[in-house]
């Protein structure tokens, strides 16, 4: 099993929406992917509830599970995932990723 963890800092305003509105849109889009991509076993999205300007704090986190590294690659390149990535790239300032094997 492979866990794929991504954390993002969002722009304050992007695509005509606030950071919190874009975070909610990201959550909805990302959580919809397991029903469209069979290789993606699960997708959990959390929106940060901490307040303050700590540089280390991210706004949104994604934790996904795939059976194999090949499944993770299929998920990453899947057209439905790429549509979500296109939106995310427009609203994100920073991105961090960790993949690990369970």
TrEMBL record:
It comes from the Bacteria. Pfam families: Dabb (PF07876). Residues 2-100 form the Stress-response A/B barrel domain. SMART domains: Dabb (SM00886). InterPro entries: Dabb, Dimeric_a/b-barrel. PANTHER family: BLL2683 PROTEIN (PTHR37832), STRESS-RESPONSE A_B BARREL DOMAIN-CONTAINING PROTEIN (PTHR37832:SF1). This is Dabb family protein. It comes from Gracilimonas halophila. The lineage of its organism: Bacteria, Pseudomonadati, Balneolota, Balneolia, Balneolales.
């Amino acid at each position: 099993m492979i866990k794929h963890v991504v954390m993002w800092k969002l722009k304050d305003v992007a695509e005509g929406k606030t950071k919190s509105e874009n975070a909610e849109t990201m959550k909805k889009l990302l959580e919809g992917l397991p029903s469209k991509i069979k290789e993606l076993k699960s997708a959990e999205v959390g929106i940060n509830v901490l307040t303050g300007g700590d540089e280390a704090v991210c706004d949104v986190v994604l934790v996904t599970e795939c059976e194999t590294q090949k499944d993770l690659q299929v998920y990453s390149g899947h057209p439905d995932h790429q549509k979500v990535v296109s939106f995310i790239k427009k609203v994100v300032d920073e991105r961090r990723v960790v993949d690990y094997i369970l």
